[in-house]
Queue: 4 jobs
Job 1
Amino acid sequence: MNKIFNYVTDNIDLLIRRKLSSKKTDLYYIVENTNWSIAEDGKNIVGNVKNIIGEVTSSAKYISNDSYIHYGSFNVFMAAPARYKKRKGNKIIVTCFHIVDGDPRASMIASVDKYVGKWHTSCNITKNKLISYGVNSDKICVIPLGIDTNIYFPAISLEEREKQRSKIGIKKGQIVIGSFQKDGNGWDEGLEPKLIKGPDIFCDAVEMLSHEHDIFVLLSGPARGYVKKRLEQAQIPYKHIYMENAGDIAKLYRMIDIYIVASREEGGPKAILESMASGVPVISTKVGQAVDMMTNGENGFIVDIEDVSAITDAFNKIINDLVLREKIIKNGLSTAKNYELKKIAERYENELYVKD
């Protein structure tokens, strides 16, 4: 994790750019020490903007004047000391991926809005929620999450995929469902489910599908204890491989047949674009970025939140209709190209990191 948080000091090219730059424009992307996903977001943005010299850090203590301070989440922003939010000459940007209904921190949005130059979110659902909490729409910028197609791409061949699957105990003919997220509370075993991520819905759907199909579940991400326990109770074979590196997670996508997002609340999730870019059909509930980028039956299936039957119906359509499956894969790959990381970073630079 230190490699992520000290990204600038480990990146020789970036240091050269800083040294040679005649026009110094600083960006500090503030992240949590424990949130691997947000840290990855910051690294991707800082590493792909063209005209801004920046760094990813977990502290705003040593930030210079006349800089962009981009808080990678609302939680990070709220945890920062008040003096960091009031610095003159610095432009504060706050990313808010999603707002959970009933979260007491949501009521604080209006009171801290005066410190924020721009609010950033990845989807229109969250934009509308920010507006409902008192943020002027002119201050909100919707820029979706991006995808690095140099890392996420389809399996080279069916033969290679079968070879990799067999190495981790997947039998020939099994339908492999992927789920690569953190969906347990805390950072330990994760036996208590984080319900906004829908692990209960995911398990209900998988259990129903296991009555008709030979299912294997491939898991990644921390705190998956609840899901693992449910799968064991239902006697559904699975493998949990915890990988933090994006390149390693990408290898897991190339082993699966379908990815299921069963969340109740999301800003992304990243898994949608990661699946599409990997040539994997995705089924998602109507959350976050899924609503903005998915067309039902065209580049995936999008279903109502908590609708287990709709998830299983979509699964059966994909498995039983080869023509439909190939169409979804083709359209998904095309969709992913529109969200290339370099294109998204350019939007950050043009829409967020600009002088008034």
Job 2
Amino acid sequence: MDNNHTNRDTVAKYKFRLEPPQVLVLGFAAIILVGALLLSLPAATASGQSAGFLDALFTATSAVAVTGLVVVDTGTYWSVFGKTVILLLIQTGGLGFMTVATMVFLVLGRKINLRERLIIQEQLNQFTLQGLVRLTKYIILGTLLIESAGAALLSIRFVPQHGFMKGLYFSIFHAVSAFCNAGFDITGGYRSFTPYVDDALVSGVILVLLVLGGLGFTVVAEILQTKKFRKLSLHTKMVLTITGVLLLFGTLYIFVFEYSNAATLAGLSLKGKLLASLFHSATPRTAGFNTLPTGQLRNPTKVLNIVFMFIGGSPGSTAGGIKTTTAGLLVWTVISVVKGREDTEVFRRRVSKEMVYRALSVTIISMTLVMVTTTILTVSEPVPFMDAFFESTSAFGTVGLSTGITPDLSATGKIAVIITMFTGRLGPLTIAFALAQRQRNNRGRLRYPEEKILVG
């Protein structure tokens, strides 16, 4: 009887044990809830009055999801305490709560067990468990070094403008926000970095930080260890190639379409036009800062922004979206099909069909989420379709760019965007992992007869 009772307890224990994706979802949700409660306190606002739970929840979700969409002006509405809470939420969301937890465990001298390594593997989107703790150490150290360097460079501009303490805080806040691709700024007046549109120092530092953050921790580490392109892994080659192509194409596209736009590039020097075009080619892929007024961009530029926001950054980075490698894999698959090849071939390497199916599934599910959110916004908000579509894609891609409708969203619109930001931060990777698990569990089961259908 005792043995049976023990067996039942063991079965019950494993039956209700959470899978790594579930732990990640609940972990991020818990951090958001704590952040929302802190931001609901009167001490979190400059006026001393509570922001209300919904606005606090929206801001906390946007910070943890490293999005940057805001319903109140971050620079003027929140107190120093509120801004510091937002800063900590951004850092935690950018690194991932398991990375932060691992850092605490290491400081306390606690060993990382197998289950915790599985959760870290899911969060960092790694193939194996080998070297995860060492990689986490590199991520923490690298993040601190890069953000510190960025803050030091930004302080050259901000300290003379705001004084030592305020200028240093400005520098640290924006360095962390940029590297984490969060898009939060404290310049005030919903201006983002528009006052620095032709400032090569500020725009350049922010640009480098957000690109490094969007490449992914493993990619940056591999680049530092492997100097020659041909020796890099296929993943890193794809990330660098696609990122370079998007940056170059986006810069030329924006330069051409906004060149004569009086509200954006027309009044700038040639250097300013090129700098602003490069900045706005990079920022839609989940950074969320802007040096040009987003609402004044021409429609062709907004369409490019929507495409870039949907693609996002790279796997294992602080960025969102479907990821560069997902989009690239689908493009290479199309090229292979057109050329009559049976397999998807990239840089003389064959990619498994399982990866192609996963990329296709993530893309379709993500498109569905964006369209559902867009539909909700067009019903609940008195805004044009383009603005609703732009906002939905920005929320999913955890970008933070907006045509200006975010502060005026209704309660329904805010809730829809909150869910989209949260899903965008965790959804594609978690969904891909769940699909892979399902395939492994289904191996060996009955296979039905094959039959052809007409396509195209």
Job 3
Amino acid sequence: MKFMDEYRDAAIAKQYADAIRSTVTRPWNIMEICGGQTHAIVKFGIDELLPPDLSLVHGPGCPVCVTPLEIIDKALSIAARPEVIFCSFGDMLRVPGSTTDLFSVKAGGGDVRIVYSPMDAVKLAAANPDREVVFFAVGFETTAPANGMAVFQANRLNLKNFSILVSHVLVPPAMEAILSSPLNCVQGFLAAGHVCTVMGFTEYEPLATKYKIPIVVTGFEPLDILQGIYMCVKQLEEGRAEVENQYSRSVRRDGNFPAQEILRQVFRIIPRKWRGVGEIPQSGFGLAEEYSSFDAEVRFGLADYTAEESAECISGLVLQGQKKPFECPAFGTRCTPEHPLGATMVSSEGACAAYYLYRRRKTPSVAVSS
């Protein structure tokens, strides 16, 4: 289709790859934040077009992957209750908890339903006043406005049987956690274009200044990513550390004001635990006091539950850019999409899933369509 081919032109991709090769004079490590970008890089072989001195590091940009184990276990506990209709997007159903997953709960008789919008769950609550309807609210700043609007509307409709299990995380604090780590190897960022469509990119400007690191807001198609890499490399080679916007067809500096307003009204910023990473200060959304009655953790008495991660799964190191999926001893053997150790193997944006799907067999990569 034209709107896709426009950003997958092989001749233009080659021009960008040539420009990157002619610009790079020393080793650089650039991290893409978004799991959608990771999948595009691996699927289209973008990393294989780059000079050997330029490494792409995969970051914690998959919200399903960073949803902590105890939140998954809480979802499983709630979904198994006979009075509950548990609503979720489909990508959460195979994410492993401590002992099982939502798909298995559904197979065992739990009323687990895949929805396409949080407002579908609000409608279910209105239509089923004798049931507790819970929506699994997972994601970065991208999905949070729609989930916040669902709570806002449920409150307006006085729905006492609706609640959400919140696991929203924020990108800038995660970037700062990576940059402040003594193990950090990242020298430039490709920021997630969809997050910036909502939030803008003013939040990244203090990070670029403080850590003297270029940040390029980048889209998701092959040419978007190649252009974003080129812009980042130019900054690195020229000694600049600025925030630039490659994804200008969708992103404005200040973002989407109405979406930000619903976030300010419904949520508050709290510390959040990231699966495989640990707690990051001020890195998540929780419900504001005015809307606390819609908090499923409190409603079902699960607020203080904790769980331990699998010692065998190295997804935390993958999410921090310290390991590639194929460096895990369990990759493709004890950890597969059918029997995953961690969420990075089953999420549609997980780095391990991308490598399992596109790089498990040593076949030549096709960069872009011609």
Job 4
Amino acid sequence: MSDAAVRSRGFFGEPSALGYLSFTETWERFSYYGMVALLTLYMSQQLLLPGHAEHVAGLAGFRAALESVFGRMSTLGFASQIFGLYTGFVYFTPVFGGMIADRFIGRRNAVMLGAALMSAGHLAMAFETSFLLALLLLITGCGLLKGNISAQVGTLYGDSDIAGRTRGYSIYSMGINVGATAGPLACGFLAATWGWHYGFGLAGILMLIGLATYAAGYRHLAEEPPRAVRAAAPPLDAAQLRVVAALIAMMALTVFQSIAYYQNGNVGLVWIDSHVDLGFFGWTVPVAWFNSIDPLVSILAVPPLVVLWRRQAARGREPNEIGKIAIGAFMAAGANLLLVVGGLAFDRVPVLFPVFYDVILGVAFLYYWPTLLALVSRAAPLSLKSTLMGTAFLSLFVSNITLGWLGGYYEQMSPEAFWALNAAIAAAGGILAFVAQRPLGKIFESA
């Protein structure tokens, strides 16, 4: 796409197609985070208990298979393992979704098919019998949608427009976080007021709105023909191979802080339900609402962070992409240490501790995840952009599988030791990113 074409602005000074992509992700993340905020609590407090578990098609065999690998699990341990596997595979399948789009059906068709499958999956969550089928549909649909729609943001900007590309991904991430903020609030309210399945049903309706939004913008999105019908790309040269290796290394370094970050939607909610004073003027705050705090902060913190980074850049002191990722890791470590302090200081932890925990995580997210996506979009070789964008989400697969497994140890440790462990994991990622800043930075500078 020419620089002249991409300079056609219609959405907050950015390409008009960015609006359709951002709003599609807003509705998709609204449904996803609304459902995820309920998932562990729903499983541990209802679905996996006697009288309900028997109704879930295939659950007994699924549990037997997991216990053959991980050993016997408590109800909470089983719920945490399912949470980790689901949220992990949601970020594993985009690798294959990117390959399918690159080679066969194109990005637009992949996103449309993915959104349709996710809509069916969310609606299936409203029924106990189809619980495992629902997770399978959601995992498959997200694989087709997630990496491909993220890659489409990068195609709206010319290769030389690095600042515009970063701006575009920041706006796109803001749309994600609007949905991630509203989802737990709306779905959590319905679940607390009328029952779990009303919350899950709302998630399905919202995903259908996301599908309609993308369909409305379909013609505005440019599309390259899939690789199977265009000339074969030339093989990568040595410099490009070094860039690919460096990108994969950078993705691996973000795994550490993602473990500490995404635990807030799993054991974090269980800990809040058991150890935090949720009373507020005679009203009990729904636990799922805490999952709206960090994405809300990730929206509100964008303008001041942009101002900060511009001032740092004017003085030649703005951290490079790897430096920002390291800062995000150290912030995630600090957030988890805050829960350690709260647990040690109080029998019933004041509500401000988990609030500030999520606030810090929201800022940490802005330092590391949009930065990683922008880096991949900028530096990846053209023939591998969708595949490597999907590979970036593979880091979240590893993170979520690991945090689900770690969650099984929560009942065997003190809460303070558990959160200290998560803080140490995030800090290790920050140290590794800091050490790698110079050698990897040189490779990316030449990309």
